[in-house]
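Supplementary Methods. Inverse-folding protocol.

Structures were first reduced to a discrete structure-token string of length 121. This string, shown here, constituted the complete conditioning input.
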């Protein structure tokens, strides 16, 4: 298993632990923020080492790689959405919890898809 795959596995473990501790804010929030920071760092490291965006722009990759890259981008977008909604929950906004939960389900599906497809890229 490569370093990137190992770090991605750690991120998934943090997300699972964060989901398990979703009712314990003192644990949930640091776990999820750590997962986000590691995932963002992982994306940046992959870009710096492999010039992933340049390969996408040059069309030197398969359609499957475009799919994986799109999922990866959506995962980062969902992290931001969940962060904003999480802050809304902390501020007592009544609808934030509902949307945080729904966005969390979408995020889990996307992050698992990202993890699985990363082994074929």
């Amino acid at each position: 298993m490569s370093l990137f795959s190992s770090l991605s596995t750690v991120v998934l473990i943090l997300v699972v632990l964060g989901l398990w501790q979703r009712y314990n804010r003192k644990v949930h929030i640091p776990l999820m923020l750590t997962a986000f920071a590691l995932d963002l760092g992982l994306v940046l490291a992959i870009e710096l080492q492999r010039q992933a965006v340049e390969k996408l722009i040059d069309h030197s990759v398969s359609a499957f790689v475009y799919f994986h890259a799109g999922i990866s981008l959506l995962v980062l977008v969902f992290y931001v959405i969940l962060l904003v909604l999480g802050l809304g929950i902390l501020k007592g906004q009544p609808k934030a919890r509902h949307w945080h939960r729904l966005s969390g389900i979408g995020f889990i599906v996307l992050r698992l898809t990202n993890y699985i497809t990363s082994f074929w890229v």
